[in-house]
Amino acid sequence: MNNPPKAQIVPKITELHGVERQDDFYWLRNREDKEVISYLEAENEFTKQSTENLESLQKDIYDEMLGRIKEDDDSVPYKKGSYFYYSRTETGKPYRIYCRKKESLDAVEEILVDGNQLAENREYMQLGSMAVSPDHSILAYSVDYEGDERFKLYFRCLNGQRTFEEEIVNTSYSLAWCNDNQTIFYTVVDEASRPYKIMRHRLGHNQTHDQLVYHEADDSFFLTVSKSRSDAYIYIDADSAVTSEIRFANADEPDAAFQVFAPRVNGVEYDIEHHTDHFYIVTNEDALNFQVFRTPISQFDKEAWELVIPHDEKVTIDGFDAFLKYLIVYERAQGLPEIRILDLTSGDNHRIPFEDASYSVWSGSNPEFDISKLRFGYSSLRTPDTVYEYDLATQIKKVLKQSPVLGGYNSDEY
Q1: Largest separation between any pair of C-alpha atoms in the chain
Q2: pLDDT for position 163
């Protein structure tokens, strides 16, 4: 066996905040340098030689893992407007296929994006974001072919009436449509791949015509753009490790100016959800474990905030979702996640019971604003990923899908 290759030491001094640091391997950052490529190829060859004796074991482990996975599988469809959206996988194909059906699950399937076709003849492919316009006629989707998380954004007319030639480069993961079905907001990344600008794009125009909406100059903050579940507002979130700031604008007005909801304060995190004529706010200001307020849209300064859920020293609020009749609060108590249901009409509240001693819970696909049933995901050390539907009125939960584990798995044995 050959000796492992040794990277050449080329000291480079960098200075940040008045502190000098020496990096002996800074030169390896240059992907175009022939010496860098030659060194990486030498490392790969050494690894190959060093692990030749493990090839049979690698194949056995891979085959056993594959033998426990159902390759032909569908996600649970969710309804948005008049369409049911879902994704599926096929045996022997590594990427998901994203589809929809109109009005009924018995309708003809329409494929929106086939990841396998996008990856054909490519060494790498990753889908970034997908967002269908409010009238369900246009699909925006982004793809990374290099592995550097710099996505190229494309548009596809789903009714075949138009074609879109524009391609938008250097985008990040988040997208948001205005309600005119012609305007979309997206994030742009800087040289360090930080999402630092929000841009406005009109369909049918070249990227050079796109307008800057917001530029985050502080390199400790990352930007995302999203849309409220009510479809009424566009949000711009600026987040650092311990601080957040949100801007919002009317989704019916593509050229509307964004307003700051609450100016950033170091160490204060908050999030908002729109609900009819109010905003709900979750924040850790003066509340280590977070608390929930609400405020009128017409008067959202802090003097108007009304306390809804006070701070609890024993329960942390991890997040929340606002629906027309219910507020869903994701909490953590005694180390375990919980889902709390607050009826906004009666004021009653309760938590969904879970049986396992240790488990994970997460929010499911709930895109509609007016719901009577909540979807969420669940798993434990002995329970495969499961999608539940919970009736918010009757408090009865039903399994919609549990990921099958092939090979004779029996949860009672654990």
Answers
A1: 74
A2: 84
Q: Distance (Å, rounded) from C-alpha 117 to C-alpha 126? A: 12
Where do we find the tokens 């003849």? 121
74-84 per-position pLDDT tens digit = 999 999 999 99
Q: Quick one: DSSP state of residue 404?
A: -
**For residue 229, how many other CB atoms are within 10 A of its CB?**
20
For residue 300, how many C-alpha atoms fall within 13 Å in the half-sphere facing its CB? 19
Per-residue model confidence (pLDDT) at position 66: 85
The number of helix segments (H) and strand segments (E) in the chain equals: 3, 30
Q: Which residue has the tokens 């982004």?
A: 142
Q: Which long-range contacts (CB under 8 A, 24 or more apart) does 323-331 make?
A: 323/229, 323/366, 323/369, 323/370, 323/371, 324/275, 324/276, 324/369, 324/370, 324/371, 325/370, 325/372, 325/392, 326/371, 326/374, 326/392, 327/275, 327/280, 327/292, 328/363, 328/374, 329/292, 330/361, 330/363
Of 109, 124, 106, the C-alpha closest to 98 is 109
Q: DSSP string spanning 280-295?
A: EEEE-TT-TT-EEEEE
The pTM for the full model equals 0.88
Distances (CA, A) of 209 to 200, 203, 337: 9, 11, 46
Q: Is 334 exposed, middle or buried (0-12, 13-18, 19+ CB in 10 A)?
A: exposed
Is residue 216 a contact partner of residue 196, using CB atoms and an 8 Å limit? yes
